[in-house]
Amino acid sequence: MKVAIITDQHFGARKNSKLFHDYFLKFYNNVFFPTLEEQGITTVVDMGDTFDSRKGIDFSALSWAKNNYYDRLQEMGVKVHTIVGNHTAYYKNTNQINAVDLLLREYDNVTVYSEPTEVMLDKLPTLFIPWINQENEANTLKLIEKTTCPCAMGHLELQGFRVNKQIVMEHGLEGKLFEKFSRVYSGHYHTRSDNGVVFYLGNPYEMFWTDVGDTRGFHIFDTETVTHEPVNNPYRLFYNIYYEDTNYQTFDTREYENKIVRIIVRKKSDTKKFEKFVDKLYSSGVAELKVVENFAIQEAENFEAFESEDTLSILNRYIEEAEISLDKSIVQKMIQEIYQEACELI
Description:
By secondary structure, this protein is α/β, with parallel strands linked by helices.
């Protein structure tokens, strides 16, 4: 049997941004649902962070999620296994109060897993592992140790895997705890990475600048062969444009309508021509436009930031190269969390 695995959908993201939800909807209308229908898929595993905010949800975002996702799955007769992630658990030390359980009780095709549970996916015993916290950690680790399930799916924070293209997680559980499984699939990190046993599948679409140019989508899992294949999302939201005295008259801006664009200036000999280049982008209907001309970081004469780097990767490399007595990995994690929160406020 083939099963669709999707994770970290973050409905209600960026303060229920219409721009983002319109972008999400292109993926669901043109990629996700057509694939389910074409391949006759009747089971979806959602590996966590279905909604964006663990503290609450905008009613408009909830309406969007029901109208464009859950109602359609119910009408198609698709069974949904939903695993609680850290964004859907209200408290940080327990999964008992969570958004997916409270918001989706009207759907008899949706089952929510707030505790580790052994589930049969067709004929394949599979261990579902929700977000591990203070309350459930001991029981979760015991079940991982004693289970005979060959496959696990969950929302895990493991060391040694990429959080995004620039950062590798140095905290969390050790991956060797899961070596007994033939396959482990996880959400939480939004980019794809694996060690041959544990596979972080990544989220369906771009949400931050750290995602630019990073392949997104969902996966089809075969319960008989215990293998998976990606279904990539062709749609992008974030774009870098490298300006090198580019001719604004011949530059095609049609691709950038309703997109978030960053112009990285490599060469600007004529300010007026550059302004006309920017004006042309604005007139094409870009949703947001930023211009980056100077990466200089003050008080660091020996530090050089590269134009291909985004803000978070620059900050992390700056910390790595700085002469400080603090644990640099802890500082980097704090900066990452602050940066992520700041992005969500934009």
